[in-house]
Each structure stands twice: as C-alpha cells, then as structure tokens.
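User: Show me a protein chain along with its predicted structure.
Assistant: Here is one chain, sequence first, then structure tokens.
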Amino acid sequence: LLGLPDVHYLATMLHPNLKSFNHTPDKKLYAENLLKIAFNKLTPLDTNVQDKTKTKDGKKLVNPIPKTLIVPLDEIFDKPIVKGNLVKPASSKTELNLYLCDETKIEKETNIFNYWKLNETQYPILAQLAKQILAFLL
C-alpha cells in the first residue's frame, strides 16, 4: 500500500508537464522507480502460453521443435560492417520507457483525465494506472 507522499510522486510522474521534476530533480529517480513498480504490477503476464509439444486435442507431437543449425560465435560477432549500412537493433522500448522519453506538454487548462483518455491506446497500462492514482487524489 502506498503512502500519500508516494501517491503524489506517482501523480506527478503521470502528468506530462510535471514528470521531468524540474523543480526537484533529486526526487525524479525515486518517483520513476515508484512508477516502474506500479506499472509492473499492472503489466499482464502471458498466461496463454501454449504447450508446443501437444496438438489442440492433447496428443503428443513426435518432433515439435525443428532442429536448427548452431551458428558459431565467430560468424555472429565478426560480421563485417558496411559503411553507412549499420543495423540498428529492434526497439525494445516498453510503454513505460516510451512515456518517460515523450516530451509532449499539454495546455495548463487541459484536464489530465482527457489527456489519458486520448492517449490510452498508446499507453494502455499507464492510462489505467493514471485513472486509479489521479482519481484517488480527487
């Protein structure tokens, strides 16, 4: 259970204009950690993992996993780099990381609930958390 000051930190992190903690930068890391903990509590685990060794009717598959070639480490790490053609790794940014990097600001008159309603497709878990935290403070 969160104490009132922690709820205030979360509410600050969930406001796009305030999450930078410009006036109290020493508190930003603490607030980010609180948000990460709350976010992780709401993040659904993949509970629909299928057993790849069985068919839909429950019969065991003879060879469910195809054999793959094991590539020597030399071939993985010693690939030549073509100038101007660097391969960027796939983005592994989570919803939370995207929000924390987002520098969008809203008008002072904008209702924060409207902001989260408009952004709930981009940040579904954070929008759910924002509704809980911000409604608590009303």
